[in-house]
Write a structure and sequence with these properties.
By secondary structure, the chain is an alpha+beta fold. Among the domains are: 16-67 and 174-228 and 313-363, FAD/NAD(P)-binding domain; 372-426, Rieske [2Fe-2S] iron-sulphur domain (Rieske Iron-sulfur Protein, 3-layer Sandwich). The protein is built from eleven helices and 21 strands. It has helices at 7-10, 35-46, 78-85, 88-109, 129-141, 172-180, 226-229, 282-293, 337-352, 360-363, 372-386; strands at 24-31, 51-54, 70-71, 117-124, 147-149, 161-169, 185-186, 193-194, 198-201, 204-213, 231-241, 249-252, 259-263, 266-275, 298-309, 316-321, 324-331, 401-403, 408-410, 417-419, 424-426. The longest helix has 22 residues, at 88-109. The chain binds flavin-adenine dinucleotide. The site of flavin-adenine dinucleotide (FAD) has 41 residues, from helix 2, strand 11, strand 15 and helix 9.
Length: 437
């Protein structure tokens, strides 16, 4: 029987930090100690900024502990889409920002024992050669010498794969454990509410000049419309023993497809994805694929997680909202949160220091929201708000759906999740289910 937790979790020992004890003041408060929050703290500390990071539970215990940790600028077929929808300049900057993030990881990992390995990143297609050719053309147009590999080292027939060399993979928790050493962090310090530049926790208040929300899903609903601009998408992972080395990191161009990467003697298969709160193939699809392609292999670990998806597939990094100029956010990583966290740390450090950052504009949360996905998100919310069943989500009141694969109550509107006793598992809800809900 496989272990129901991520490989990283089993194989790492994280540093521990005290709980906040009494009220304090700081220039910059960072809320959330996942990859995004920890990297922001690291770069703010290097820049000499007075900051404090508070984490509601333990650092990197959220999505970051369940990532597959591919460090890549090849985010599916994003460049052809960006070229046509956002234009050459923005597409080029998105590519540059991500390549710089890959490079930053390379530099930082040089001094850290975190199983960092440079690899080629591949976007493959099972049935659409044209899409791959268009993506390779788009990349060439943006100045990247892209090629298509005819026979990627995958266990099934493909139409080839667009290659991006000099990308990477690592062990995210070994990395974060080292990076977090010496940072000013309080664990078990959950921010419950805000009162005029003061964050309220049960063990003290924190008064700040500026605040960074690195809470995965932003927790303040008053500004920024994140509850309309994002939804959450769940994915499943199995780690196989006795399966081949695929020599690289792979993602299907079809968002419902699978991903592959190795870690030591294990092969990770990712997939079974669906909007949180909706039906999906979950681990079943992955188990069937493992059985078909690697009949000799056995499943050692199985886990699942979810990420925030934006309207235009670009993260929201920058000023939180028009009426919250001292608030900043790093969210909407679209399942590419390693490079996106690094980009966020660079952009937000500059913005806190009031320095110009040439990538700030592309990721600015204030950009246009007029996309088809906005209507889908809106309709989903209206439908689930009007659905009379119980229990209800304490975030905005949507009807929760039972997820039999994981035995949890999941919200189809914004992705909050609760265990069968009603305890909060995933935000944006900020508390457990009420007994009567
Ligand atoms: C299955 C899967 C595979 C993935 N694989 C990849 C990959 O290969 N490569 C890649 O680049 N990306 C990948 N991603 C995406 C990436 O893992 C995430 O985008 C990233 O880990 C998110 O980091 P984060 O810091 O934003 O969030 P988190 O890691 O969730 O951190 C947020 C933290 O905020 C804390 N918090 C929340 N509310 C409060 C509060 N009120 N007070 C205090 N603390 C609070 C939480 O406890 C949590 O620790 C994957 C995602 C999934 C779902």
């Amino acid at each position: 029987m496989e272990k129901r937790e991520s490989v990283w979790n089993v194989q790492s020992s994280m540093p521990h930090f005290e709980k906040l004890n009494g009220s304090i003041k700081t220039d910059v408060l960072i809320i959330g100690g996942g990859m995004a929050g920890v990297l922001c703290a690291y770069f703010l500390q290097k820049a000499g900024v007075d900051y404090v990071l508070v984490e509601g539970k333990k650092i990197c215990c959220g999505v970051t502990q369940n990532t597959t940790a591919k460090i890549s600028a090849a985010h599916g077929l994003i460049y052809n889409e960006l070229l046509h929808q956002a234009g050459q300049e923005r597409a080029k900057r998105y590519l540059e920002a991500n390549l710089k993030a890959v490079q930053s990881f390379g530099e930082l990992c040089r001094g850290i024992d975190c199983d960092y390995k440079e690899v080629t990143s591949y976007v493959y297609s099972l049935d659409n050669r044209k899409k791959l050719e268009d993506e390779a053309d788009a990349l060439r147009h943006l100045g990247w010498d892209a090629a298509i590999l005819e026979t990627p080292k995958l266990p099934m027939q493909t139409m080839g794969a667009v290659c991006m060399e000099h990308q990477a993979q690592f062990h995210p928790l070994k990395f974060a454990a080292k990076i977090a050493q010496g940072l000013t962090i309080y664990e078990d310090t959950f921010v419950k509410e805000f009162k005029d530049h003061t964050a309220v926790t049960e063990s003290g208040n924190i008064t700040y000049r500026k605040v960074i929300f690195a809470t995965h899903f932003p927790i303040d609903n008053k500004y920024g419309l994140y509850f309309l601009k994002m939804y959450q998408h769940r994915s499943y992972v199995i780690a196989l023993e006795n399966a081949e080395d695929v020599e690289g990191i792979y993602i299907d161009e079809n968002r419902k497809g699978m991903s592959f990467r190795n870690y030591k003697d294990l092969l990770f298969l990712g997939g079974g994805s669906h909007r949180t709160g909706k039906k999906g193939c979950c681990w079943q699809e992955l188990k069937e694929a493992a059985h078909q392609y690697y009949p000799e292999a056995s499943i050692k670990y199985a886990w699942a997680a979810q990420d925030c998806m934006t309207l235009d597939h670009i993260p929201y990094i920058g000023v939180y909202g028009k009426h919250m100029p001292d608030g900043f956010v790093a969210t909407g990583f679209n399942k590419w949160g390693m490079t996106s966290s690094m980009i966020a740390a660079h952009i937000l450090t500059d913005q806190i220091l009031e320095k110009e950052n040439s990538y700030g504009e592309i990721f600015a949360p204030s950009r246009s929201i007029w996309k088809l996905q906005l209507a889908v998100n809106g309709l989903e919310a209206v439908f689930n708000l009007l659905t009379p069943s119980k229990p209800r989500c304490p975030h905005l009141g949507c009807a929760l759906k039972w997820n039999p694969a994981e035995r949890t109550w999941d919200c189809p509107c914004h992705g909050s999740r609760f265990d069968k006793e009603g305890r909060l598992l995933d935000n944006p809800a900020n508390g457990d289910l009420k007994k009567s809900s």
